[in-house]
Amino acid sequence: MNSFWKRYFTEYKKTLLLSAPVIIAQLGQILVGLIDNIMIGHLGRTELAAASFTNTLFYLIIFFGMGFSYALTPVVGQLWGKRETGELGSWLKNGIMSNIIMGFLLSIVLCLVAELMPYMGQPKSVVFPSQSYLYILTISVLPMMIFYGYKQFAEGLGDTKTAMVIVLIANGINILGNYMFMFGKLGMPELGLIGAGVGTVISRIFMAVAFFAIFRYKSLFKEYTGILSSSMFSIEKIKRLSLLGMPIGGQMVMESAAFGFCAIMMGWISELGMASHQIAINLSTLGFMIFQGLGAGTTIRVSHAKGNNDLKGIGMATTSGIHLMLFYSVISMALFIGARNLLPQIFTNDNEVVMLTAQMLIICAFFQLFDGFQVVLAGSLRGLADVQVPAVITFISYFMISIPFSYFAAFKWGFGAVGIWYGFPVGLATSSFLYYMRYLYITRRKPDTLVAMA
After folding, report:
1. Could you tell me the pLDDT band of residue 16, with boundaries at 50, 70 and 90?
2. Angstrom distance (rounded) from CA 270 to CA 261
3. Are 302 and 383 contacting, i.e. CB atoms less than 8 angstroms apart?
4. pLDDT tens across 321-338, in order?
5. How far is CA 269 from the centre of its chain?
6. What is the C-alpha to C-alpha distance for residues 343 and 200, in angstroms, rounded to an integer?
7. What is the predicted pLDDT for the residue at 392?
8. Residue 182 is part of which domain span?
9. What CA–CA distance (Å, rounded) separates 347 from 275?
10. I want to staple 304 with a disulfide (CB 3.0 to 4.6 A). Which of 81, 135, 317, 419 is the partner?
11. Burial category of 97 from C-beta neighbours within 10 Å (exposed 0-12, middle 13-18, buried 19 and up)
12. Within 10 Å of residue 217's Cβ, how many Cβ atoms?
């Protein structure tokens, strides 16, 4: 045991130093939505259901943009690992431009989605407030993508703290904005659900502006600002980022689609199911963001090791991420099961919603291990710039297995709203196994073949 601890203590420390700020930043971004929903829950069941419907569709689209931006991290990380820093300013400039283009495209898609809301089979009482809320949130997409461009570049350099600080401050701005615009405080108009969207937009604009300003003054970034201003836009670099980013974005969309489409199916059952699903998803997402942070830390470490042609370092970085994930999985399982009747009460006093959410949280507890395993392995593969095959694995796991299983469990096998959640552990277990097989296949190649991967 002592030899094992000595061997991995340094690895755990390295992973946690990178992952902890990412986890806090990820949790902070999710908390923006979580705080919205806690406050919206006090407006009423209809407003909470409308927020559930809107956020499901919004994040289904925005996750593609988030994943797309992740392409910059392994590119920067590998150059940083090789100590080839002369090109980093150019990659930042083209990375930001790629994200801006993607932000405009996603905004157009979200406007089209808003127009299609009345045809998605949802209760009429939910549709109109959902449309208005989605239009407001769409304004936040462009600043959000700019923020992600700076964030992913900084993470490629090993700086995960700057984004954390910005996000935490943004959370405070979001809470204040909600208070002012939802409930008409401090001289502002009382806008209800729309006010929640206004608070979110203000906080995300701050995130983009803050990172832009910090980049001009923080010593770590100063050497790249001159290169950034003198660099030219490169179609080739934008193309490479797109070729890496599109599969990652698609992968994240397919993962969230399993949850998103299930929210739509909840609307086919009842408003009660929609409200309960929204609360359970918010709680589940908080756990997922911790896994996501560990995956991001693993991506950074693996990309640095790949840049150094360090096959052993790749293995140690991945293994330490898995060990930390296992530790957290046990804690989250105990929390979801033990506090399943208490956690929903943070959002609502509706007893029916609390009882149904508690049933969903039991299922949530059981798929924590599979969820964490697949996120860390996906992060390792991303650090190796392996994105095409993982996207195919995700499609198989969620679109061919998870979503159909949820549908049959809910509508054919008689399990109702809870049955929709049965598909999640099935899909996550499948993706975990296939990611692991892919990781073994790649890491058993010869080192020179591994490092030469594009």
Report:
1. confident
2. 15
3. yes
4. 998 888 888 898 899 898
5. 27
6. 24
7. 93
8. 2-451
9. 10
10. 81
11. middle
12. 9
